[in-house]
Amino acid sequence: MGANASAEQVDDVVARLEEAGCGAVVTPGREATVIGAIGERELLAALPLEGYAGVEQVLPILKPYKLVSRELSPDPTVIEARGRRIGDGYFGFIAGPCSVETREQTLETARAVAAAGVTMLRGGAFKPRTSPYAFQGLGEEALEILKEAREETGLPIVTELMDIRDLDAVLEVADVIQIGARNMQNYPLLAEIGRAGRPALLKRGLSAPLDELLMAAEYILKEGNPSVMVCERGIRTFETDHRRVTLDLMAVPILKELTHLPVIVDPSHAAGRRELVLPLSLAAAAAGADGIIVETHPNPDEAVCDGPQALRADGFADYLALVERAAALGGKALSAV
After folding, report:
1. In the chain, N or C terminus with fewer CB closer than 10 Å?
2. What does the alpha-carbon distance between residue 207 and residue 237 come to, in Å, rounded to a whole number?
3. CA angle 324, 330, 287 (to 5 degrees)
4. DSSP run (H or E) holding 110
């Protein structure tokens, strides 16, 4: 739409699209409003779009993903949960235990990361594990513990949803729903999260190209949920001797070119080793990431899972301060309340 297009003209274009059987997504921008027209290409081509009042230009979106593309929304999206923001100039710090093991372990971690000034608290209630015999999480008991941690610290909760049957229980606690790497292409799950309308953090699959990650995000946006963060957490390559997987830091600036959605990096799962988490975090922040999600534990040596990669809670504040300085180099400020 033109820079001076009125709200009535925007509404009129949307109404005309809907009358023709097309969908319309309105994205207000800093300089102009963009309307994403969704429908059959032949049907859209037959509409006299350029003749509608207020329309300045009509452009086809060539990418297979439409709603997540920067072609539709050139301005970056900002995700907000309980007053904390991630995206654009806001750098998000998400930290907490891999799994909720006990009430004491979770609350101790929550207090430590809250005191350091993180943006959100992460914690797994339902855990996807490679082995069916490994710890699978405490389930709804863990959700109650996370709820208590939020009440005490005020931090928004990020937790993973693995099964549609657990959606209602997770929605009672989660301020941000995490979709793990193994569920990146679980399309029915993505669609349900889209309809739920809760902000989502979508992790890249272990062997997924970036276009497939963005198409997975498209499933969520298509259902009406614009609040999605995409997360680089490492991909499988030929190199396995000194790392769990390979953290694809080149994905950060590429994703920033392709999508308006915030880009998060998970150095913990990629590294698998505590000593690698800080340098990878610094590199991610310097590369332009909108946030970091890391694992933290009061006593990693006794952690039920992923202890070797978890940062120690008592030294977390020093780690955060270093990464915050790296983020500042890219013009981003830590978002906390």
Report:
1. C
2. 9
3. 90
4. helix 103-116
Could you report the per-residue pLDDT of 309-330, keeping only the tens digit for each?
Answer: 999 999 999 999 999 999 998 8
Mean pLDDT for 91-108 is 95
Distance of alpha carbon 258 from alpha carbon 140, whole angstroms: 37
pLDDT in tens, 274-288: 999 999 999 999 999
What's the pLDDT at 280? 97
List helix spans (H) across 138-261: 140-153, 167-171, 187-196, 210-222, 251-258
Q: Which amino acid is at 90?
A: Y
Cβ-contact 63, 215 below 8 angstroms:
no
Report residue 291's pLDDT band, with 50, 70 and 90 as the boundaries: very high
Rounded-to-integer distance, Cα 102 and Cα 99, Å? 9
Question: pLDDT band for position 130 (50/70/90)?
Answer: low
Amino acid letter, residue 151: E
CB of 101 closer than 8 Å to CB of 293: no
The first and second tokens of residue 80, run together, are 């907000």
Contacts of 265 (CB under 8 A, 6+ apart): 231, 232, 233, 247, 249, 252, 280, 281, 284, 289, 291, 292, 293
**pLDDT tens track for 32-78:** 888 988 888 788 888 899 999 999 999 888 788 889 999 888 889 99
Count of residues in the chain: 337
Q: Terminus-to-terminus CA distance in the chain, angstroms?
A: 36
Q: DSSP letter string over 272-316?
A: -SHHHHHHHHHHHHHTT-SEEEEEEES-GGG-SS-GGGPEEGGGH
Structure confidence at residue 337 (pLDDT): 60
Q: What is the pLDDT of residue 40?
A: 82
